[in-house]
Amino acid sequence: MIRINQLKLPVDHTEEYLWNKAAKTLKIPVSEIRSLKIIKQSIDARKKEEIHFTYCVEVEALREESVVHKAKNVNVSIAEKREYVFPKPGKEKLSHRPVIIGTGPAGLFCGVMLARNGYNPLLLERGEDVDRRREGVDRFWEGQRLNPDSNVQFGEGGAGTFSDGKLNTLVKDPFMRNKKVLELFVEFGADPSILYVNKPHIGTDVLSGIVKNMREEIIRLGGEVRFQSHVTDFITEGGRLKEIVVGEGERILTDVLILAIGHSARDTFEVLEKRGVPMEAKAFAMGLRIQHPQETIDLSQYGTPDQSLLGAADYKLTHSCTNGRGIYTFCMCPGGYVVNASSEEGRLAVNGMSYHKRDGKNANSALIVTVTPEDFGGEGPLSGIAYQRRLEEAAFLQGNGKIPVQLYEDFKKGRISREFGNVEPAFKGLYEFADLREILPAYMTESIIEGVEAFERRIRGFARPDAVLAGIESRTSSPVRIFRDETLESSVKGMYPCGEGAGYAGGITSAAMDGLKVAEAVASRFQMQGL
Questions:
Q1: Alpha-carbon distance values, 420 to 147, 372, 393, 439 (Å)
Q2: How does pLDDT run across 379-406, given as a tens digit for each residue?
Q3: What is the 3-state secondary structure (H, E, C) of 364-379?
């Protein structure tokens, strides 16, 4: 195969145009191209009058080495083929099947790979299956009582199910796990374009079907998936895990337990600490969500509010504040909604969510400030959780149990808003005007205001007075890291911390990749015989 980088095409190009462009670059007739595969597609909007797509493609042709030589182009080369390889099974025998706690991306992808290689895993999920979970979340957003075990954070698919479904990651990938994750997403129902678009996303509506298909595959291959199965304790003996307790007393024996518990499993973190599982508090980030009209973002990024050919525009912004803090946008949701993402009674958190089409009227993103253990006002591995809870309790009180909302100009001046301006709010969940400054520590308020003003210089209209703020965005990543060694095992033998909740990922793709990594570690050590 021949790889061609930096193929530039107009945004309204046809497939035929792409083939002709590739042939011209290779200096061969298009008839000599046997196949063409898009490896990467991105939008170059640096010059608004010359917006175009940039492609990397792989081409199968006659006499490929000769073609590359004659092309005399630095962007043309023989493609290097690298594929994901799952390890051969190890020699240690298991007495019991592996157990995975959590059916978010880490747990599901780990479960699929173990099931496909004969390990018959048992997946335990405290929340409901994705269909009943979605029905319950919709009722909560309409004003009914929160279910602490099945909500935006807990249930089949994990927290990412109610998000934009972003699949981009900055994780270095010499083992091709990223590619494998995307291929599995496509196999289970995602659009094949995620394999090559620069910033792939799935959308909450499509992701629901994908996680269901993954569950059915695990079951078909001999695994088991149980919902409303809350793991409440861990029984160890001589520094090794022997059993887990589900609910109020059911005990399950296991040699291998994969902790894919997610970043909001606070009660589980508490039990793990009591049982002596080594962990530490880690830095994360918190702040607010901001909403603008999507056409404002499209106009800034594309030079036109017409997104018909390019899709809803996104952005990623950072700023170093004069107080020494850094602020950045996170989990930007084009055409999306701000949702009530609470998981504990008396506490309130928000997140962003988009459907696959991203055709909502507003863009939103988190404006978050890094917080470190020095900010938590306490000691111990769970001090970050305590800090989250204090701010979430303040948000719940400020909004009287609803999402607390404030216009940007009023936030700057410290007054409660009376009515919305020209930005029509896009929320999932009830909301109420409140003073968001009463929720945040002073350094966070200062950083957000300075950051929004700085971002105005990048995106005109970002600091508009009627931009809609909501809080608190507190579940950006885990505030805890559960230690694991080079074999990915805890010092409590038999436990394998995994994914975002354990502190080893930051998003859907990186969590799924860590799920593959832990499945590899288990498979390369153990065989499944005599069960």
A1: 30, 34, 25, 20
A2: 999 999 999 999 999 999 999 999 999 9
A3: EEEEEEEECHHHCCCC
